[in-house]
UniProtKB/TrEMBL annotation, chains A, B:
Its cofactor is Zn(2+). Keywords: Metal-binding, NAD, Oxidoreductase, Zinc. GO terms for cellular component: cytosol. This is Histidinol dehydrogenase.
Amino acid sequence: MEKIIYPHKEDWSKLQERTFETYEALEKAVRPILRRVQREGDKALRSFVFKYDRVRIKRFQLTPEELAEASNHVSDELKEAINVAKYNIATFHLTQTKAVKKIETTEGVFSWQKNVPIAKVGLYVPSTGDAPLYSHILMMGILANIAGCKEIILCSAANHEGRIHPIILYTAHLLNIKKVYRVGGVQAIAAMAYGTETIPKVDKIFGPSNEYVSTAKQLVSKNDVAIDMPVGPSELCYVADQSTNPVYAAADILAHAEQSSHNQLVVLTNAEEVADKIQAEVDKQLNELPLKKEVAKEVFKNAKIIVFKSNVESIAFANEYAPENLVLAIDNAEAVGDRITNASSIHLGHLTPPAVGYYAAGPNHILPSNGFARSYSGLSVDSFVKKINFQQVTPLGLQNVGSTVATMSEAEELLGRKNSIIKRLELLD
Amino acid sequence: MEKIIYPHKEDWSKLQERTFETYEALEKAVRPILRRVQREGDKALRSFVFKYDRVRIKRFQLTPEELAEASNHVSDELKEAINVAKYNIATFHLTQTKAVKKIETTEGVFSWQKNVPIAKVGLYVPSTGDAPLYSHILMMGILANIAGCKEIILCSAANHEGRIHPIILYTAHLLNIKKVYRVGGVQAIAAMAYGTETIPKVDKIFGPSNEYVSTAKQLVSKNDVAIDMPVGPSELCYVADQSTNPVYAAADILAHAEQSSHNQLVVLTNAEEVADKIQAEVDKQLNELPLKKEVAKEVFKNAKIIVFKSNVESIAFANEYAPENLVLAIDNAEAVGDRITNASSIHLGHLTPPAVGYYAAGPNHILPSNGFARSYSGLSVDSFVKKINFQQVTPLGLQNVGSTVATMSEAEELLGRKNSIIKRLELLD
């Protein structure tokens, strides 16, 4: 981690920059894959899966038996843990849905809003090596179930033997996801956006992803399908001071760093000695623990540990940075948390490692990054519904609101609208 | 309008296609404008405004005096109408916000969600000729005020004399929008996305638009700023049967057709005689009324009136078409409305012309189109906030949920996360 001491305010925006590939290069790589899948369907899918995943897939879709059978390969301990997480995630998200009940804005003018599930949703589950990232399925599938989506499909890359990890299949089965396909990467996004002979076109695509898949999602979202949000590499912004336990801090930092070599990391503190203690403890744990060391070291190349003159400055910096995950590992975390205006998810105090929020606290872990915490929210049940507006006018209502509408449409020089009121009022009289 | 009788099910998707320019051509036109504004700021803005709007603008921003003074040029009748609309729109949207209160998902594990206003929002108000489309400002500005956005800026093209219509300025002033800029089109989107010397960069851009501005919004949304939704040309899907009054139907259809030559129009009915009556009445009103006839005729070139065998078929077609605006001009409209799964806004019955919903019923009129009603919602207060997740764990909470998190992270082969739990539990004991 690069240590930076008392940066000038005018250098902050430079320090807040994320480091990754430019968009144009990614688009150039992604476009031809999208086009070919759109044109050639399953044939193109097979060819890209062979090229990128080095496996020949004959049958993309798993059978109901394969999904059900996966349960035999998952330990009872993990099943129990998944159940706890599922309960907490469902409890949190069940409080989210809200429709607008029928209201009468003017006498005789009724309006309301109805939540209608998005019919067909596609969940993308990335694979990192052979690790089954099944927790993403919980974060998407539980919400799709709460919303009531009719068709939930899931795409994930198979390994060299054409196998999807049983924990992925078990979790999908647990959440009643019946259509699971052995395809990952850009080609999976293309398949869900355009549809192929075997994979249905969906209305909205969800899921975290690397830069290529993210680019693919953004490209297909222009015209063909909705996407959840622009998800980039994961981010951790860690605020520490003299009250922070360096052992906890180092553990949280390493947990973030080993997760993906693209991950972004910024540690903010109010004293150089705190920075040095954390750095020393990071080095120590990195050597002692069974971590993905090469991945973590890659993250540390671009990571920064910044010393400010006060916690107030750290917080001001964090608000400008707008991180995906913000840890306030300080004494008065809840009060400080109230002053955060830009962050996707905040982990408060000394005993709230991001890992708890990530798996089991209840809130969602699929969150905007790359500065989009300024304007986007994390996944919610609302991400799986659309809200339909209704309006209904009675004869009295039309008499009450008619002149308002006529006057307003005339001012916009749209006399047809005024006429649609007048024609009715004439016949009502 | 082209009349189509009893189309085969397999031809429906063809009939549901929208007609407009392809994306690639639009991007080619839009990209250079975005790039130049990003590089050259105000200088580029000035040059594009001169090129496209034929006016030389020295000072983009209006003064507080200019905004306040506009009130003198708006009639009391219109002010009163705007007030009624403002009250109804606010009443409807005030019921929309909801945060997740603090809940305890596992004993000692607390989580909640807070609505935080998006700090800087940019509202785009298109101009059609000299008509002041001020109702869009109500639909965006009232929501931004309810959400509590700190900085609200507004961009709209000036006319040949460098003037923005006083009704636009009056409405902005009424909603406490202090920063109004004389710039429209793609260059306005670029200015709000990247910032220039005089126009601040915003976090999210809102507003209806033509295809060029829509394309610009989608392009800048990749990396630089959020946007409200992919808004395309306005759409009307009109369901009529023997109970429909052809005079009302024709008035509504003409109101939609004269609004913009890009507008999409589909009339669905269960009997050819109904189709013919409506067509005859459209022709009659088109000749009698003071409408924008050339605009309407352009819309009718691509419009369709489709005869099905029953209302049930009409409704099935409407659900597949997923229109922006759906009128159910039939007797049992509310019951039928309950069976709609894809539409942005539904106008129920014989006395609910879309004009009422458009201006004054309460619901928003900035709505997804081009089939995105399948997956997007119209503007809501949530469009102007982001939801921050919070989690906080007590010592008891960590003991309760610790093993769940440890087990789950181990299964994802992320031992750093497990370690962040263990290090804490060790020290707690």
